[in-house]
């Protein structure tokens, strides 16, 4: 089986991976490629797995990428229509629903995300309802061409999930409007939204040959979703054990999540230490963690799947081991920095993302500016600014991780990157060879020529330069160009980690990196800093998201041109509706959005936070991160990180069979201050469940793991996300009025959710 699936993209010096490569003669005299033979062998293997005729060893997943073959089917029915009336009706409908809702909740006290699984379940119900209820004969055949199929469903989800976000550019546009009295015209704003996303799509198109087509790039985060699509559309809905398991667990979680989320919040974090003493700040900092910015959650246990999530069920074992190593370091480093009083740690909260004045109060950042630019005279009056020590530590470990990523990816993946880069040589006549059973099935569809993406990238670059100039950002054209080149390079590095091991905790650290780079190129200008972060981090995030969608399309056999069209359509719909809703909300609620606390219906907290970050980096970077400043090690850590993978590399040279190649320095470092923000009681159960699933069940019960582990992950998340969405409107105040459950011991509003002392901020 392993021999049948060559997982690496290969550069064949003599022949290409097209239909002319490695040809053999079949019994009927027709030419058959080795790839076609391999695909046929995989089909036969999958049939044995499905019919329970395979051995335990055949079910067992030895290498992480094998889930792409053993969990997912390569089945395809090319005759199924993808672009139907249902596709566009439901796709545009859910795109509008998601985009409007995401933008409304960007300006709400309580942020709400429209999840992919939530849209997947809803569209499945609506799609089947339309197939049953709409007429399907005669002239109505084009409205209802038959049963709701997997290609329609995947196309709908790719379109709607692309639209169902509040785009990063909205933060820049809204901050300019609210805090700098600069309102972009509609055309400029919408093109800023579209252009910043199309850049990422251009990156993805150039990288897809290396990061989508090969088996090795299996994108762990898409496996569970693809498995659910196949179960819902390929299994017999009445007799399939997978489908029955999904809906059973879905319903159980739908009911259960009401208890920890509303009735009994103590279940979100049970800490024996806080139950014993809820007055100790040391206990709160170390063992608490059920409230935002409360503590590290050491030895706490969480029963709320909304916090735990299914990543622990589908993330590869070695990803989780590296994460766990980093988290163990977190406990040591965060406690050491704070209780060692490094950087005057005890003068500020244990955990906070705010910036503080010397007396411990929050720094008045807006008072720093004159005409939107840093004013050194006002800075002298206000005095120096400080981070909480754990936040400064997070900035350092993030930069260490970023530097380590460069060395790690280029060393361990150079044999994949080198032949891919050769394909951009115009004199190179030998294309990249890819041998993958899923990709082999995709060859029946028209591929997207690479020049499409070059044209898209050129158009997006022109739009970015035009909108950057028209928006009076203060970011020079050369600085924008440098940022985009860095963004393309980091997209390659981070996408490689996301594709091969599932590592994706790099969005916030990358944003800080681009703010730092922009601050060096254009110091003292917060608006320019926002645009620098926008054109650095956002295309990078969009690139990774599009690559994941392309892989989902490959798993579910959606034609590449359909996938591309759905993403572009979702982007345009999302951008237009994002902008319309933003303007409507700001014009109607400007005073509420500008106030510190907002109202029960509207809050500018997200815009305020984004502006604060821009001021701290754009205005205060030389003072906070310069050579003689308190936090001068933050930028230096970027260079130090480049050398940190070397010990593992050297050890691997001396002991090549000891497994040192499995240790990932970027992941360990990124998680070395992972607990410096947010709710942290879910970390310990996620560790235990992850090891139980990806080690114990995978090795001891391979049949169950292959058949049910990933469908279980989708069911746990699906039920949780649907009820969470309903609870947000019904009781948590998303509709305007919150309805708290009556105060009792398990829901004590005077303490943190885990009955620790309330956090300082």
Keywords:
761 residues; two-stranded antiparallel ribbon; 32 helices; 6 strands
Number of helical segments with 4 or more residues: 32
Strand order of the largest sheet: 1-2
The percentage helix is: 55-70%
Give the low-confidence spans.
Answer: 1-31
- N- to C-terminal distance: 56 Å
Beta-strand percent range:
under 5%
Question: If you had to describe this structure to a student in words, what would you say it looks like?
Answer:
The protein is 61% helix and 2% strand. It has a two-stranded antiparallel sheet. Strands 3-6 form a two-stranded antiparallel ribbon. The chain has a two-stranded antiparallel ribbon with strand order 4-5. The chain is globular. By secondary structure, it is mainly α. Strand 1 and strand 2 form a beta hairpin.
Secondary structure layout plus pairing:
Layout: E1 23-25, E2 31-33, H1 34-50, H2 56-59, H3 67-70, H4 85-106, H5 116-133, H6 150-163, H7 168-179, H8 186-211, H9 220-234, H10 241-256, H11 258-263, H12 272-276, H13 281-287, H14 305-308, H15 311-314, H16 317-339, E3 355-356, E4 369-370, E5 373-374, H17 376-382, E6 386-387, H18 389-412, H19 414-422, H20 437-442, H21 450-470, H22 477-500, H23 507-521, H24 526-556, H25 560-594, H26 605-618, H27 621-625, H28 633-643, H29 646-654, H30 665-670, H31 683-700, H32 702-730
Antiparallel strand pairs: 1-2, 3-6, 4-5
Helix pairs in contact: 4-6, 4-25, 5-6, 6-24, 6-25, 7-8, 7-24, 7-25, 7-26, 8-21, 8-22, 8-24, 8-25, 9-24, 9-32, 10-32, 16-31, 18-22, 18-23, 18-28, 22-24, 23-24, 24-25, 24-26, 31-32
């Amino acid at each position: 089986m392993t021999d049948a699936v060559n997982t690496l993209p290969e550069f064949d010096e003599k022949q290409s991976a097209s239909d002319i490569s490695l040809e053999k003669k079949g019994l009927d005299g027709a030419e058959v490629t080795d790839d076609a033979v391999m695909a046929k062998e995989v089909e036969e293997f999958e049939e044995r797995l499905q019919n329970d005729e395979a051995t335990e060893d055949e079910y067992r997943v030895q290498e992480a990428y094998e889930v792409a073959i053993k969990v997912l089917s390569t089945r395809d029915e090319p005759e199924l229509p993808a672009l139907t009336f249902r596709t566009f009706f439901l796709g545009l409908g859910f795109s509008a629903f998601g985009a409007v809702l995401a933008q409304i909740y960007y300006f709400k006290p309580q942020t709400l995300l429209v999840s992919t699984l939530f849209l997947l379940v809803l569209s499945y119900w609506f799609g089947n309802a339309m197939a049953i209820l709409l007429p399907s004969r005669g002239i109505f055949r084009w409205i209802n061409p038959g049963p709701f199929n997997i290609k329609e469903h995947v196309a709908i989800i790719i379109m709607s999930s692309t639209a169902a976000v509040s785009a990063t550019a909205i933060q820049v546009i809204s901050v300019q409007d609210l805090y700098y009295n600069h309102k972009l015209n509609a055309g400029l704003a919408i093109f800023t939204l579209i252009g910043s996303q199309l850049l990422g799509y251009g990156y993805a198109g150039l990288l897809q040959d290396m990061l989508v087509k090969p088996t090795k790039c299996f994108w762990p985060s898409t496996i569970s979703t693809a498995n659910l699509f196949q179960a819902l559309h390929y299994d017999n809905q009445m007799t399939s054990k997978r489908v029955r398991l999904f809906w059973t667990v879905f319903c159980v979680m739908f009911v259960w999540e009401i208890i920890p989320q509303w009735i009994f919040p103590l279940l979100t974090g049970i800490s024996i230490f806080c139950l014993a003493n809820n007055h100790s700040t040391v206990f709160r900092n170390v063992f608490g963690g059920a409230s935002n910015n409360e503590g590290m959650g050491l030895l706490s246990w969480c029963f709320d799947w909304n916090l735990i999530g299914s990543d622990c069920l589908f993330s590869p074992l070695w990803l989780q081991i590296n994460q766990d190593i980093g988290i163990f370091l977190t406990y040591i480093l965060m406690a050491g920095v704070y209780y060692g009083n490094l950087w005057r740690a005890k003068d500020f909260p244990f955990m906070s993302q705010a910036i503080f004045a010397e007396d411990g109060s929050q720094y008045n950042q807006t008072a720093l500016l004159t005409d939107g630019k840093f004013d050194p005279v006002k800075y002298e009056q206000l005095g120096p600014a400080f981070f909480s020590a754990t936040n400064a530590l997070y900035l350092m470990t993030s930069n260490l991780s970023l530097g380590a990523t460069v060395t790690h990816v280029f060393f361990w993946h150079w044999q994949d990157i080198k032949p891919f880069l050769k394909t951009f040589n115009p004199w190179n006549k030998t294309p990249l060879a890819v041998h993958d059973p899923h990709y082999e099935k995709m060859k029946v569809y028209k591929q997207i020529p690479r020049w499409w993406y070059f044209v898209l990238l050129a158009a997006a670059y022109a739009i970015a330069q035009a909108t950057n100039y028209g928006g009076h950002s203060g970011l020079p054209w050369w600085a924008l160009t440098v940022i985009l080149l860095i963004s393309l390079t980091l997209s390659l590095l981070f996408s490689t980690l996301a594709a091969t091991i599932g590592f994706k905790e790099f969005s916030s650290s990358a944003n800080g990196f681009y703010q730092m780079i922009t601050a060096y190129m254009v110091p003292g200008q917060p608006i320019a800093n926002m645009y620098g972060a926008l054109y650095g981090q956002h295309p990078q995030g969009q690139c990774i998201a599009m690559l994941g969608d392309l892989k989902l399309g490959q798993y579910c056999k959606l034609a590449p041109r359909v996938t591309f069209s759905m993403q572009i359509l979702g982007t345009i719909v999302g951008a237009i509706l994002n902008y319309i809703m933003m303007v409507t909300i700001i014009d109607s609620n400007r005073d509420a959005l500008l106030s510190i606390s907002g109202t029960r219906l509207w809050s500018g907290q997200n815009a305020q936070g984004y502006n604060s970050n821009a001021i701290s980096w754009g205005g205060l970077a030389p003072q906070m991160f310069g050579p003689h400043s308190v936090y001068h090690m933050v930028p230096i850590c970027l260079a130090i990180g480049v050398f940190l993978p070397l010990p593992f590399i050297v050890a691997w040279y001396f002991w090549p069979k000891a497994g040192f190649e499995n240790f990932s320095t970027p992941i360990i470092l990124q998680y070395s201050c992972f607990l410096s923000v947010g709710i942290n009681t879910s970390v310990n159960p996620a560790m235990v469940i992850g090891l139980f699933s990806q080690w114990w069940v995978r090795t001891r019960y391979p049949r169950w793991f292959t058949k049910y582990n990933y469908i279980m992950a989708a069911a746990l998340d699906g039920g949780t996300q649907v009820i969470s969405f309903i609870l947000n409107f019904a009781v948590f105040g998303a509709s305007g009025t919150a309805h708290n459950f009556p105060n009792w011991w398990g829901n004590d509003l005077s303490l943190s959710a885990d009955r620790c002392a309330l956090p300082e901020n």
